Structures are given as structure tokens and as C-alpha cells.
């Protein structure tokens, strides 16, 4: 997985920032030119490295919002 | 990471289900008896396997809700 590219289409928000400057972010990202997906992930400062994350479709994001609204 | 245990404290909701029955879920999980964290992850049927996921503190979950409310 070293040869891939991505484009951050939209930065939706930052959930938190660690002492070392890593941020947990919700972005809309296109991976290898494919259709963009929502992406919840840790990033090093200036996006130099990416950490673990999870991709969400727009339907999944809607469901997540509904779940959080019901808490 | 083969020797760990977890307890699902609360199942908050299912975001989606794949054709093979894997579900993307938001749960409150205690890993190895530690303080529970929110967890967004794919699960095989009957929780037989777990996929990639991301843990969120309650503060991060609140920020995520705020971000989604502003979309």
C-alpha cells in the first residue's frame, strides 16, 4: 500500500488534537482518483503521515448522525 | 495483538450491513478491562471477527456530533 495517492476534497472538522500535534479529522477523501468517501482518521502535523482510520459512505454518515442524535 | 479481550458495554447502533453480513457499528467497548471507549468498526456476523476501526473518546464523539450537526 505504498503506491497510492489521495486528495482531500473537503475538510469537515477536527475531533481532537494530541500532545504531539496529531489530529483526528473527518474529511471527504478521494483515494486513487475514485469516488470520494468520508474518512475518520488520525493525521500527523501537515498531513505528513496518516494513522488508522475508517471510511464511511454518505449513507453510513447519515446513519451515524441519526445514532448520535438519539443519544 | 492476539491475546486481548474486550467487552461490549453498550451497542449504540448499526451504520450499515454488507452483502456478507458484516456490520459497521458504533459501540462502547472496554478493551482489556480498561475504561470504555466509543468504537466505530466492522464486525463479522456473531462478532466472530473484527475489522478495522477507530476508537473515540466521549469528547471526540461530542465533537463529531457537532461537526455532523453543522453539515
TrEMBL record, chains A, B:
Domain named Transcriptional coactivator p15 (PC4) C-terminal: residues: 19-66
The domain of life for this entry's organism is Bacteria
Which Pfam families does UniProt cross-reference here? PC4
For this entry, the protein name equals YdbC family protein
Organism of this sequence: Aciduricibacillus chroicocephali
Lineage summary? Bacteria, Bacillati, Bacillota, Bacilli, Bacillales
